[in-house]
Amino acid sequence: MRAEKNISISFRVSPRFKRLLEASAAREHRSQTNMLETLLFAYCDAHDVAVTTDPPAQRAAQAQGVA
User: Fold this and answer.
1) C-alpha dihedral over 61, 62, 64, 67, to 10 degrees?
2) Fewer CB under 10 Å: which end of the chain, C or N?
3) Residue 6 in domain
4) Percent of the chain with pLDDT over 70
5) 15 to each of 28, 34, 40, how far by Cα in Å?
6) Number of domains in the chain
7) Quick check: is 45 in a domain?
8) Domain that residue 31 falls in
């Protein structure tokens, strides 16, 4: 299985968010990206949030019982 490539995203945040992210990441000895990933994955696990990686056409075929 081939590993997924990392992608770049960009978004604006408040100065408070940025300061808290910096402080939290430093406290955990993590990068800011890793801190955000860790927090998001923990949230998703706790709230049963999942996403499929199947292409839309494959999902549609599976829903119709074709695949």
Assistant:
1) 70
2) N
3) no
4) 82
5) 20, 19, 20
6) 1
7) yes
8) 15-63
pLDDT at residue 10 tops 90: yes
Task: Indicate the pLDDT class of residue 59, thresholds 50, 70 and 90.
Answer: low
Residue 1 structure tokens: 């299985």
Q: Helices 32-46 and 15-27: crossing angle, nearest 10°?
A: 90
pLDDT digits (tens, 9 = 90+) for 15-29: 999 999 999 999 999
Query: CB burial class (10 A; 0-12, 13-18, 19+) of residue 24?
Result: middle
Region class of 52: left (phi > 0), else alpha (psi between -120 and 50), else beta: beta
